[in-house]
Specification:
The protein has 4 helices and no strands. It is elongated and about 55 Å long. It is an all-alpha fold. It has one domain. Helix 1 runs antiparallel to helix 2 and helix 3 packs antiparallel against helix 4.
């Protein structure tokens, strides 16, 4: 029943609509780009992107926040590399990876409801969470074999 999410045989065949693969490429590039920015930007993107007022915190606190953003970047890089492997060799994993992506973004939104993050403006990631979650779920639906073209 759910063989299209957890295939019995893992290969490079994709069960659903081919457009899903191309949108997944775009999501992969965004994931890799964000990861590298969080890892290598001087502030890890904490102040420049997420609008966390690092300059108002003690130096040790700011350094800790930047470190955590770099660790988050590493996690994103590893996920992005798994996405790349799926795109190159194991496209049958794309439905499962979209399910995990949806779970991650839903988790971010859930955590944001009970953990307060002091910012000076709305971080673009907060907006992206509300867009990426439904996008991942829609893409997951189009992974079903009934949407395969041809």
């Amino acid at each position: 029943m759910m063989d299209w999410i957890l295939p019995k045989r893992l290969d490079n065949s994709f069960p659903g609509h081919p457009a899903v693969v191309w949108i997944f490429v775009a999501l992969t590039l965004v994931t890799l780009g964000r990861s590298l920015f969080h890892m290598f930007a001087p502030d890890g993107g904490a102040q420049s992107v997420a609008h966390i007022p690092l300059s108002t915190y003690p130096a040790a606190a700011s350094s800790t926040i930047i470190f955590v953003f770099a660790l988050w970047g590493l996690s994103q890089l590893l996920m992005g590399l798994i996405y790349v492997v799926a795109l190159i060799r194991y496209r049958g994993l794309i439905p499962l990876l979209l399910l995990l992506m949806a779970a991650e973004y839903a988790g971010r939104m859930l955590i944001a409801t009970y953990r307060v993050l002091e910012t000076t403006a709305t971080p673009p990631g907060a907006v992206a969470d509300h867009l990426t979650l439904p996008l991942a779920l829609i893409l997951l639906a189009f992974c079903h074999p009934r949407f395969r073209k041809g």
